[in-house]
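Researcher: Please translate sequence to structure tokens.
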Amino acid sequence: MSFTSRHLNCPLERALFKGEGSSGGSNKTCREPLYLVALDRYKADSESKRLFPEVSPYQSFLYDATITDGDCRIRAMLHPRLGQLVRVNELRCGSELHRAEFTVEFDEKRLGPGRVKFQLVGAEVENGPEGPVLQRLRGQSLAALPWLRGDGGVGGLALAPLKARRSCYLPLWNCEDYFGDIWKKKPPSTEPANNRARQGSSSLRFITLRQARTAFINNCRRNLGTVGNRWTLGNLRTLGNRWTLGNLGTVGNLGTLLVRVMKKSRLRHYGRVQQNSECPYQAEFQVADRSGSASMILWNSLCLNWFICLEPGIVLKLQNYRVKATYSSRMGTGQESEDQIEIEINLNSQNPSAIISIIPEEAVQTDWKLPSLTFKFHRREKLDVVPNGTICDVIGLVTFVGRPERVLKKGGDFNEFSVYRWVYMEDGSGDAPIVLKLESTSQPELHTQLHPMLVLVCTNVQLTSTSNKAELYVTSTTNSHVYRRGQHRGRPYTTHPKVVQFIQWLKTLSEKEEVTKIVLGGYFSFPPLPSSVEQYLEERNGEACLSSMEELKGHVYRLQYQQHRRFTVQATIIAVCYCPLGQEEVCSPPRQMNVQPNISSDRSPEIPSQARQSSMKRPLEDPGTVSTAPVKRPSLPPRSKAMQEVLTPPSSRSSTVKVLDTFCNEFEDEELVAALDEYLEESNPLVWCGRRWHGERLGGMTALPETVPRYGSYNKLELHTQAAGLQPACFEHTLSDPVKTLESFPSSIAGYYRFTILGLNESLAIETIFIPTKHLSLSPEPYENSLASILVHGGFSPSTPCPTPEELIASASELAHQHFLFVLDISSQGVGRLEVVLNRAYPCPTLQP
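Model: Translation complete:
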């Protein structure tokens, strides 16, 4: 039976249109399972704020969902209070919805398709193994699913947000990339064919950027009614805000500009709730001609048509533009150099409507004297002597790609994040790799497909070194651009001497040997923290960096999906164990011990762990409503689920944890407790337990699969990269079980240490994972490989024999009752899955009175 014939009486049709004559505004419940197959995010505006006055600043982004019953699909807005479930990745593509409740409204200004609006206000969510419907959907394109009554799109137009006047959607996890088919990958066909462009180029009458600057200043002088022969942009600032009247916006009083794009910035989204701009985007380019270089600003809807197309090196013909002084010159902070002309060429879709044309390279005339792209490639061996802050270009063979991590964007609102990852590149010029901190370059397709064994070029990176010059790395800037395999041919950098030298080295490599080096994902921290507690506190303003255990719990509860934060707490070590990967049961209690704790949840919503073999259902309710009273759960049978997580080997146990697991272990059988402690303290050389703790705990008993770095398989690099990436916004791009996919790749570490630390006020214990790191420095300072020293330096000293795990555990008792400053890297891997990694443990300094 075809989709078209099936959807006429599908579950969505029966639930949402039962009683055709019913009015809008009523709630409808679908009692059959539904499936979420796409999520779209957008910024709220003043109108949506009016519709939802209860929306807090934390909910400034809204979400539209595509939901299907397997036969047809609808688009529905998520009520703002449900947005938090998306932000913690509980409600995601592939989620199964039970008893989904909708409100149905009619757009009274529209006839025909698109006039019915749906809003999801509640449901029970199940994130378990895929059922037959999702398995069937995974084998086909979602475009084959018909829209219920044609309400998905109107007139073939691109889908737009349902509850805000925005022209396009944002990426799900950041605001610095483009998203959706509305962004054009080919330029509008405004330029004639090559022969016509060549024929008309000789008759073009154009002006230079410096002439545009002169005309701008003269126009400002005329409009302000001032006199004088010597004018600079600095003079304009002394006239106050009146100089803005001199912006050139008329067509024809300036000539055509012929410029080459030299640099391209990342995309900037400036939408705000109080603003109603339909397409709040801006992109800055550096363009140049024979007279110098200047900024070119692309505004609003022009970004949709041109941002992807305009790459460095392209030659443009510009007409109908406005000229302004640069922001720095308006503020009085700019200083014109010989090449930099402090004006902005502003291109808008209206007032006036800019005309942009791409001139093919073969049609560019030599008498235009346009500058060529320049590159400053530095090899790894030269980075040690280059001044800190230098802007350069790098090329290398990728050997390690870290997982993407999210941090709050400086200057943004509560939900604006930047995404970055760490990359290792080798160029054959030294023993140490080039370490690249790669932030967004507004090339989302490239970033999601970045994996080892690629030749990567990254332009306009900035050299950064640690305060003691021990470690250095390069970080992408707002003007960085990345090129990978399939994009190098014909690029002007391919003839650069340093690139030619790299290619010659690349040809000497054995692919079989290089494949053995590649690693993907896992926890990674760089640059390394100082080995001195005094230096660490000095770099972080002393006590200002310390958090209490209560503050830590509050911050952890607010973590969003893949958000990373670093905390420093004071605590003592009460237990240490070594966990060999795949054999974590050797540092857990014996399986035959049947211990029953009473489990309560305090100060956090109930977020059950999700085992892979079983699914769970959770009502979609307001996540902001949190009860502070303990939640009584039913008495647990022998071998309860909580103890099953501890007692069962990893092969049959989910590695998930609860965000705020509170194990109030008031054991009923004291004899079992005594037997357990005796086992931990005497029977296992990989476990040291200094004291029992029956109170609240934070963290998990085992490392999450996402925490462990893993070797890559050459034939499965794309699959591995997808499993280690961020949750996709469309079901078609998801994996049926990304955790299982990750676990199918071998680990690059043999095991890890688990430290149980207890706050000084003994209100909270934290289970932390410690993975000793390898130093990148060619000559690190030697130190002894004692447990205390390893915790201070973050890893083993290469100049001293490495002790065995049994030897380190045997010395753990020497650290009992000592106060330490613990540096914890905490991130959320999704709802109920918290990663707590111990980065450093410094002995608490003795402060002078």
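Researcher: Any highlights?
Model: The chain has a mean pLDDT of 80.
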